[in-house]
């Protein structure tokens, strides 16, 4: 903003901001549904009140010109949103001064420069101009001494590898965009090894007296704080603004009425304003002013992030704060439609597994590592040790046990491993712990290369179903050990779901009429006979798969009966007739959840996650533990150089993430541990252009 007018910034200066100015950033991205537009206004810490008022006004005008489609953000220097930071891959540079004091975004090839930049951050880098003095330095950060033709990068003794490499990326970007590539970069990683560069630094900064300070860790919101979401209804009454709290988590979409405006407060970490389609123009205009007023009333810092959202053009960040978000008629990428509710059922899509390698994004979307044609070995945890299971009974799992399933497959001629830890609902805590410990041992035997997947009974991932080729049977309780303590029940009922060998499983349900469902096939086994009960909504494929499973659960004669033509003995075995779910299957569409990547840190005893928006493979650093959330599963990616504490805490962090997620997530979501260099296709498929040779 210059003299209260909008003036375009030269592209070479993108990412550089004067602290005395205000800026507007318009960002457009193509998506499967058209384009997503974000409009940010950025406030420098030394900008005037007038400029801050003017820039907010321009954003409202731009929003009107773009027909209310953009998501609008208010950004304050040093507290920018993760979305904003994702636009400037090499980092953001804050410069002293502004237009008013005669500063302009300079053209390239300026060499009469002398400044010191304090570089902070690992995933999101920012560089602030600080006083040219040793007092500005500390042990934990990177500092760039910029002398025009020479850039000296000084790395604090406690810097991480990632911070050093991000610092270098920033130095290179200054060299290339501001100096036309004509500047030398020198690096001081250890002062003793770089006497010449230290000599230059001392000429500029003088001799250093005293010790360097310790780095001050950034104050970041932890996950518990972010989980504390509250929804407020905002309206005018007799010229007064009324803000009324209407709900806390988990929030549901139906709370948002199209005639109104709402404020959603995410633990004071971020404030969202949602503007209903049918709300008045006045209400829409007042969105930012209301949000700022709300921040003041709550006593939050004035730097708190604000995002203004329009009904029907919500951001992914906003949607994931709700328990379930439904779009009008939106189907999945492969014709798969998500369903919810007791009767709903996912339509299975036939897909060609030979395409998986050519199209890793398919592997990710279908949650398949390969075509399930590899080798399986299964062990049961018995007396806290691994006991091999008889291969004849592979695929039969009992709720009183824990199992380890090792799946081996070949990829470019060498073996890869997936290790499933299946935890029965009725297994003891000791067995569950022993299962995890034995998994670590088994992983070690295979060179620490296995992908470890924690599977909770009833939440088996797609690939797990596929490797048992349609013979997966889950018994509610009991054990598959030789000496069984309790006799098997005489009457059992199994619900069979699936249309082919890749997606079928049979699950034991209570042997009562109320367990039936018209959309499925059920097997009822008694001491004399095995009934195949076919609900009205089931398909021929489903009946065929049920016949295959029937031979596993019962050696008795098989009787096929259709819904509505049951003999009296059938109801007797179930303890009498009773109402059961019989409505036609309904399809409700759930938003295609955008995968999200986070850096996890647990250093300070607080669990902190930093989101990387618009992520790519470059964002996985060797010293990181990263969490990739694809909604149906949680991946933990463990870097080679990550610290032992964070590695050991990884699974606990993932559970904590699910527990504190604002949308009230299912705690039984599979958690998958992936190691750097041994990533399976269903992980790499979420990244654009994955390079398997990068490491």
TrEMBL record:
What start-end ranges are recorded for coiled-coil regions in this protein? none
Q: Write down any Gene Ontology CC term.
A: actin cytoskeleton
User: Which Pfam families is this protein grouped with?
Assistant: Gelsolin
Keyword entries, A-Z? Actin capping, Actin-binding, Calcium, Cytoplasm, Cytoskeleton, Repeat
Q: Which residues form the Gelsolin-like domain?
A: 4-84, 125-197, 247-319, 386-465, 504-571, 607-683
The record's section on SMART domains has: GEL
- Record GO biological process: actin filament severing; actin polymerization or depolymerization; barbed-end actin filament capping
Q: What GO molecular functions are on record for this protein?
A: actin filament binding; phosphatidylinositol-4,5-bisphosphate binding
The reply on keyword Calcium is yes
Q: Where in the cell is it found?
A: Cytoplasm, Cytoskeleton
Q: Which family does it belong to?
A: Belongs to the villin/gelsolin family.
The protein here is known as Villin-1
């Amino acid at each position: 903003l210059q003299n209260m007018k909008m003036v375009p910034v030269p592209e070479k200066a993108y990412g550089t901001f004067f602290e005395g100015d205000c800026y507007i950033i318009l960002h457009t991205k193509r998506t499967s549904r058209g384009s997503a537009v974000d409009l940010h206004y950025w406030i420098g810490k030394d900008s005037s009140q007038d400029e801050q008022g003017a820039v907010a006004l321009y954003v409202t005008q731009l929003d009107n010109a773009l027909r209310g489609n953009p998501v609008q953000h208010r950004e304050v220097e040093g507290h920018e949103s993760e979305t904003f930071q994702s636009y400037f891959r090499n980092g953001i540079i804050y410069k002293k001064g502004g237009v008013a004091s005669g500063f302009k975004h300079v053209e390239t090839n300026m060499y009469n420069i002398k400044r010191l930049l304090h570089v902070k951050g690992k995933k999101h880098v920012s560089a602030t101009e600080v006083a040219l003095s040793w007092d500005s330095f500390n042990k934990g950060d990177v500092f760039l001494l910029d002398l025009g033709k020479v850039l000296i990068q000084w790395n604090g003794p406690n810097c991480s590898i990632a911070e050093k490499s991000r610092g270098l990326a920033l130095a290179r970007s200054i060299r290339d965009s501001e100096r036309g590539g004509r500047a030398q970069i020198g690096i001081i990683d250890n002062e003793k090894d770089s006497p010449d560069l230290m000599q230059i630094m001392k000429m500029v900064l003088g001799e250093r007296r005293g010790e360097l300070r310790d780095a001050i860790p950034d104050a970041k919101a932890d996950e518990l704080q972010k989980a504390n979401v509250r929804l407020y209804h905002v309206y005018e009454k007799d010229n007064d603004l009324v803000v009324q709290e209407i709900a806390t988590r988990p929030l549901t979409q139906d709370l948002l009425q199209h005639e109104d405006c709402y404020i959603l407060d995410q633990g004071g970490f971020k404030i969202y304003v949602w503007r209903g389609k049918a709300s008045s123009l006045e209400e829409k205009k007042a969105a930012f002013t209301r949000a700022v007023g709300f921040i003041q009333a709550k006593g939050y810092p004035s730097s708190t992030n604000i995002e203004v959202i329009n009904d029907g053009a919500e951001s992914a960040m906003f949607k994931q704060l709700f328990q379930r978000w439904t779009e009008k008629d939106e189907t999945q990428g492969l014709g798969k439609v998500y369903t919810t509710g007791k009767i709903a059922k996912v339509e299975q899509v036939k897909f060609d597994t030979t395409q998986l390698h050519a199209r890793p994004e398919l592997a990710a979307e279908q949650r398949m590592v390969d075509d399930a044609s590899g080798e399986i070995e299964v062990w049961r945890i018995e007396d806290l040790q691994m006991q091999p299971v008889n291969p004849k009974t592979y695929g039969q799992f009992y709720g009183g046990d824990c199992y380890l399933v090792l799946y081996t497959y070949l990829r470019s001629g060498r073996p890869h491993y997936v290790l499933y830890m299946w935890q029965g609902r009725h297994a003891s805590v000791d067995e569950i712990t022993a299962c995890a410990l034995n998994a670590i041992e088994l992983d070690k035997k295979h060179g620490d290369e296995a992908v470890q997947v924690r599977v909770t009974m009833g939440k088996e991932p797609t690939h797990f179903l596929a490797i048992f080729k349609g013979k997966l049977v889950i018994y509610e309780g009991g054990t598959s050990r030789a000496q069984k303590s309790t006799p098997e029940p005489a009457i059992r009922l199994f619900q069979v779901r699936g249309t082919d060998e890749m997606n079928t499983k049979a699950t034991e349900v209570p042997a009562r009429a109320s367990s039936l469902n018209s959309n499925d096939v059920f097997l009822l086994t008694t001491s004399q006979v095995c009934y195949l009960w076919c609900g009205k909504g089931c398909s021929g494929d489903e009946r065929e798969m049920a016949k295959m499973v029937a031979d596993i659960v019962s050696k008795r004669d098989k009787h096929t009966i259709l819904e509505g033509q049951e003999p009296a003995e059938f109801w007797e075995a179930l303890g009498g007739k009773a109402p059961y779910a019989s409505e036609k299957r309904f399809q409700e569409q759930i938003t295609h959840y955008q995968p999200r990547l986070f850096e996890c840190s647990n250093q300070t005893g607080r669990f902190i996650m930093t989101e990387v928006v618009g992520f790519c493979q470059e964002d996985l650093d060797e010293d990181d533990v990263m969490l990739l959330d694809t909604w149906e599963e949680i991946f933990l990616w463990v870097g080679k150089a990550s610290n032992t504490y964070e590695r050991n805490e990884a699974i606990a962090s993932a559970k904590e993430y699910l527990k504190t997620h604002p949308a009230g997530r299912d705690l039984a979501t599979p958690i998958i541990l992936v190691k750097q260099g041994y990533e399976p296709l269903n992980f790499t498929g979420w990244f654009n252009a994955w390079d398997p040779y990068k490491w």
